[in-house]
Structure formats: structure tokens, C-alpha cells
Amino acid sequence: MRSVYLIRANDGRYKIGIAKDPKHRIRQLQTGNSDQLVLIETYQSENASRIEKALHNRYSYVRNVGEWFDLSITEEVGFISMCEDIDNAINTLKKLGNIYV
Description:
By secondary structure, the chain is of the alpha+beta class. It has one domain (3-95). The protein contains four helices and five strands. The protein has helices at 22-30, 48-58, 73-77, 79-95; strands spanning 3-9, 14-19, 37-44, 63-65, 68-69. A hairpin with a 4-residue loop joins strand 1 (3-9) and strand 2. Helix 2 (48-58) packs across helix 4 (79-95). It is globular, with a radius of gyration of 14 Å.
């Protein structure tokens, strides 16, 4: 099962991504990156890729480059809650037979 992760760079940018092993992923990202990267949160779910996509859409207005975002501290603190809300919504839609999830 994969996890959605939130990584913060020392310049204040955040990366939202998915990985089977977020700790391994941060080591990969750290290679060749002059900014110190810190794994802030992880959320494990069978819906990880859908949650990641929903978060990218949700925060598109603060997208920096690629999967990097200029999030606020409030958005950082609310990351797990947002993942849970999205995950619950996806699971509800699945239970209702929605063919698009």
C-alpha cells in the first residue's frame, strides 16, 4: 500500500507526492538537492494516488513547480485531516457504485 507524503524544504516549499516508502523517497529527493528536506507527514491508503491528485488540484493556486507548493502552516497542520476527508469521500463514492472512482 502506498502513502501520500508531505515534505518541506528549508526554503518553505512543500512537496506532495506518493510512495511505498516515503523515507526512502525523501533520501532519493535529497540527493542532488541543496535544500534540507524534512518528511512532515504521511497518510497510508489504498486510494493514495487519487488523494494525491485531489490535493494537487486543491492546492493548484499555490503550486510552485511540479509537485512543489507554497503552503501555509495551517495547510501543513491540516494535511492529515484533508487526506482523511478525501479518502472518506472516495470510499463513500465507491460504496455507492460510482464508476468514476
